[in-house]
Amino acid sequence: MPVFSIILPAYNNSKELELLLASIQKHCLDINKHETIVVDDGSKDNSIESVCRNFVFIKYLRSETNNGVANARNLGARLAKNDILIFIDSDLIAQSDFISILSEKFRNHDVIAVSGTLSSTPANPSLYRDYWGLYKAFHMPKGRYTSLFTGAYGAIRKDVFWKAGGWDANMRGALKEEYEFTARLEKLVAKIHYEPRFEVKVHCNGFWKLVPENYRRAKKWCIIFLYRKKFDDYTSTFSGGMSYVLGTFVVISGIIAFLAPKFILFFICALLLYLTVIFKFLVFIVKKKGLLFTLLSIYFHLVSSLFIFFGAMQGLSYCFLTDAAKRKAINS
User: Fold this and answer.
1) pLDDT by residue (tens digit) across 47-104?
2) What global pTM score does this model have?
3) What pLDDT digit, counting tens, does each position of 165-199 carry?
4) Nearest to residue 330, comparing CAs of 207, 191, 225?
5) Could you tell me if 2 and 84 are in contact, meaning their C-beta atoms sit under 8 angstroms apart?
6) Which positions ≥6 away from 315 have C-beta within 8 Å?
7) Backbone φ, ψ for residue 201 (5° rounding)
8) Alpha carbon of 128 to those of 31, 43, 73, 216, 233: distances in Å?
9) Backbone angles phi, psi at 60, to 5 degrees
10) How many CB atoms lie within 10 A of CB 79?
């Protein structure tokens, strides 16, 4: 049976960490046979350490300065004694006995890296968070493999992790280090396995924080897309990108049609094309939440489209720059 080192980076989020550790203790009955390391990334108080004392299976490691999640993961990986690393971010909640699931996967020596999946239900539900959780869940990979190794909920053989160079500790920001690491990992590993049974819930930001944040993320995601020259299964899918482009056109054409009714046909055409592209997503939401929530989701998606579209346009302006300049922009 494979033996794992589970690495949990944490920073100023003792309440979320406690929920994660409790969920691991609940679902993973063999947790004491493995190594679990909490890396405190320079939190402002000792609350992370206090939480860790309540769980006997935890090894606590503290960085004196806050250097970002990539650095915290690397610190844990250096301390790890076992040959397979499991990375889980501390703002997640385990939904399954992922140890048993990953043990089954890694018994096959051809399996090098595995990424898990997000639950469609957020850990802190609200109308907007429920929509965002469904959106993220819908865009999870559909096949046996994925194009992104997720440090938030992924497992990898330690020798390959270090052969690929580990996480780039200079990168700080949502998913940036994961895209960059995957680009290096892909040169060593033919396939990154997708395991939907390795499921976690995430604490989502609310509407007023996440929507503007999507503008900044979209800029970075587009620069990363230009750097990698490929779409991925999670955030820069072709269909997802098209839905945001068309969503923006729906909003703009709707405003134009309101001011100049002769353009109403243009708005109707844009709306029909938009609904066609997101049709499968709408069916998914109807099955999960019903028609009224689906109508609310269209509103949320259209608002998000504006921020993501204009962020993406700013990112795409980097297309004529060198790879070195793109990498510098990713790190900024």
Assistant:
1) 999 999 999 999 999 999 999 999 999 999 999 999 999 999 999 999 999 999 999 9
2) 0.88
3) 999 888 766 567 888 898 889 889 879 999 999 99
4) 225
5) yes
6) 218, 219, 220, 221, 222, 223, 225, 226
7) -95, 145
8) 34, 29, 30, 19, 22
9) -105, 130
10) 14
